[in-house]
Amino acid sequence: MGAYIGAVDQGTTSSRFIIFDHEGRIVGMDQKEHRQIFPRPGWVEHDPMEIWRNTGDVIRGALAKTGIRGDDLAALGITNQRETTVVWDRETGRPYGNAVVWQCARTHDICRGLIREGGQDRFREQTGLPVSTYFSGPKIKWILDAHPGAREAARRGDVLFGTMETWIVWWLTGGPSGGAHVTDVTNASRTMLMNLRTLEWEEEILGILDVPRGCLPRIVPSSDHRSWGPTSEDGPLGARVPVCGAVGDQQAALVGQTCFGPGEAKNTYGTGCFLLMHTGHEPIDSAHGLITTLAYQFSGRKPSYCLEGAIAVAGALVQWLRDNLGLIERAPEVEDLASQVEDNGGVYVVPAFSGLLAPYWRPEARGVIAGLTRYANKRHLARAVLEATAYQARDILEAMNKDSRVDLKELRVDGGMVANELLMQFQSDMLNVPVTRPKVAETTCLGAAYAAGIASGYWTGREELRNNWKADKTWSPAMPHDVREDLYWSWKKAVQRSFDWVD
Q1: What is the 3-class SS of 86-127, one letter each residue?
Q2: Distance CA 306, CA 304 (A)
Q3: pLDDT tens for residues 189-207?
Q4: Which pTM does this prediction carry?
Q5: Are 310 and 272 in contact (CB under 8 A)?
Q6: What per-residue confidence (pLDDT) applies to 243?
Q7: Is 158 exposed, middle or buried (0-12, 13-18, 19+ CB in 10 A)?
């Protein structure tokens, strides 16, 4: 068996390849950003061919930096930005246009029609999801409608759909020459097309959205040694390495944080922000605006479920402060700027750039800056930008506690923003629970590695993974109750101001 595990992390802004050892430590990595394409207001696209090329580049780059060969890897796992949708030609691999990204709001009219006919929760019982532009099903319909001949080709079986892990694995395992067309349960659960309980495509919804069954990938467990097959020898690994795991990025972070017990939760602070709580082997229906989704499934075991609160804009708000307003030159500078004032000066930023996701589900909302006075300056704005992420997480946790009837005792955190200590302390203050950052912060990629490593026998089981987890730092709440509640009350007022902006 190989000495290492490799994991591809195909994210919203970049693709990475990380090599881990048996203790879950990073041995080597490489990373490459891809373009963010905004053809119209509210539309977001990626070039899927650019992402595939970048994936090959980072795999080769990490191997070259470490001197490790492809056949030194025991297995390969993959994690990915979820819901982002690619439709391509089976014979050539040519995509039908750019990938439609999870943040994209172009399916608003499709979703509005679905809601008008049956309500926002018409598919929630089967899928655990509200009707929203967020999910892949409406995106598939949009692509098939928008490209002449695409729907007819799909009915003939000449078109394939995939979220990004399906796209990358298809190419890694041969592409047009017999590549595996497979998705795992976590990614399938984000399409609005899979039944949560049967783990199969829901024929009724396929009919309503006019998505041909033949273009959909086969649904498999997140961790399994038989489902995907090996990589091609002429691919970027240069060897036949078994692909043994695939997990959507937020569920992968749950696995990487070893949240294997009901009531355990993590929050990932990346482009968006995603708080997931493990709820056990039965799905819990949300009555408070959350998503019921798959946490993971290990081969031969019952699936595990979780409640999720998804926030579209977290780190992306810091990028906006940098790229659109020019108030900072580098993202980490936001902490220095925000630290120069003691509070937000009464300023609140609601980053509803393309609507609000959980727990509001308001696609017509748009971003607002509220509470401005002549007193406010760029430092207050920087602090309000950071605080917006913590307030949104509080919105999620409030709903999660009500749905699960379990009060959170600790929040494990990961993602790029956890380096921001001002934000982490404010998050602990706002939630009134300890917030803990692990020593290995790359938990998303680590979760994909764990899924592959469990399936291949590289790791023996979940207890071994728990023993790998080590805390780096914990922040404890220090804010008086009345201050916390006053700040949060003002945030809720600001959120209300963002509603009903688009007719």
Answers
A1: EEEECCCCCECCCEECCCCCCCHHHHHHHHHHHCCCCCHHHH
A2: 7
A3: 999 999 999 999 999 999 9
A4: 0.85
A5: yes
A6: 93
A7: middle
